[in-house]
């Protein structure tokens, strides 16, 4: 399988924003808790956006709204030009806590989204193995989560995320529970992997250095109420090989 075949199967087009938020607001408790206030932004195809801000500023809330797991209280949010009304096949989210099934091997965990969607074919199995190779876990495909380190488990979770074929990846502090060394290593790997598959990525972190290191642009949120205060272009954009850039014939 080539890198092109591992690319997401979504409907990205080079000029439309992949995600468009207009005044997205979320309150809880009959309006008493403002978790997110008036978020306005566009995300372009293939961009890597870091979303940074202190604990409780609404980062997870924003991601869950983009994922369609949570409805907004006001404003509008669209993905690929369509209003988000619930979970979508082209958006996949990954959380900080490991969510692998303990009784399944790594590859069986990666194949889970395919199983949920329908019957698993040999092609799906090959893709799962290729994704485990991409995340550096080919030799551990038949290991159980308990036999893997925390970092390796999150690599499996990343392979599973890519197995969905979603072209929008929402990563909510995916390596936040890992030690600093492992986290930095995985961040570099993540940059390489999303660059190779050409996914559009929203990456949440409370670490500003990490945010700047990874991203094309950084969205900065203020503590309270959850406000998107600033959008910063990272001057030293990640190097990407030109043939891996997202193009309008992305799906061919
Ligand atoms: P972050 O991910 O930046 O740490 P969150 O999005 O989790 O922040 O939370 C933003 C704010 O919304 C916090 O004050 C949090 O307590 C509140 N909040 C989040 N989810 C709920 C909920 N289901 N019910 C009530 N309050 C919530
Ligand atoms: Mg959070």
UniProtKB/TrEMBL annotation:
It holds the Pfam family ABC_tran. Residues 19-248 form the ABC transporter domain. One of its GO terms (molecular function) is ATP hydrolysis activity. Keywords: ATP-binding, Nucleotide-binding, Transport. PROSITE patterns: ABC_TRANSPORTER_1, ABC_TRANSPORTER_2. Belongs to the ABC transporter superfamily. PANTHER family: ALIPHATIC SULFONATES IMPORT ATP-BINDING PROTEIN SSUB, TAURINE IMPORT ATP-BINDING PROTEIN-RELATED. This is ABC transporter ATP-binding protein. It comes from Meridianimarinicoccus roseus.
């Amino acid at each position: 399988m080539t890198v092109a075949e591992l690319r997401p199967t979504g409907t990205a087009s080079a000029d439309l924003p992949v995600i468009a938020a207009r005044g997205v607001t979320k309150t809880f408790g009959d309006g008493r808790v403002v978790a997110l206030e008036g978020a306005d932004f566009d995300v372009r195809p293939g961009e890597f956006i870091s979303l940074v801000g202190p604990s409780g500023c609404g980062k997870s809330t924003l991601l869950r709204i983009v994922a369609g797991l949570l409805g907004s209280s006001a404003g509008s949010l669209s993905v690929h030009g369509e209003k988000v009304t619930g979970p979508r096949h082209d958006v996949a989210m990954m959380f900080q806590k490991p969510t692998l099934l303990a009784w399944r091997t790594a590859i069986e965990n990666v194949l889970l989204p395919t199983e949920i969607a329908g019957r698993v074919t040999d092609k799906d199995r090959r893709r799962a193995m290729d994704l485990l190779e991409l995340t550096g876990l080919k030799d551990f495909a038949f290991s159980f989560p308990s036999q893997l380190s925390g970092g390796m488990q999150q690599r499996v979770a990343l392979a599973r995320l890519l197995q969905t074929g979603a072209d929008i990846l929402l990563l909510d502090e995916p390596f936040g529970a890992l030690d600093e060394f492992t986290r930095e290593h995985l961040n570099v790997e993540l940059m390489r992997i999303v660059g190779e598959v050409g996914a559009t990525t929203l990456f949440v972190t409370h670490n500003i250095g990490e945010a700047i290191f990874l991203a094309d642009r950084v969205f900065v949120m203020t503590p309270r109420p959850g406000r998107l205060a600033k959008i910063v272009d990272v001057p030293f954009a990640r190097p990407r090989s030109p043939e891996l850039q997202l193009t309008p014939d992305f799906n061919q």
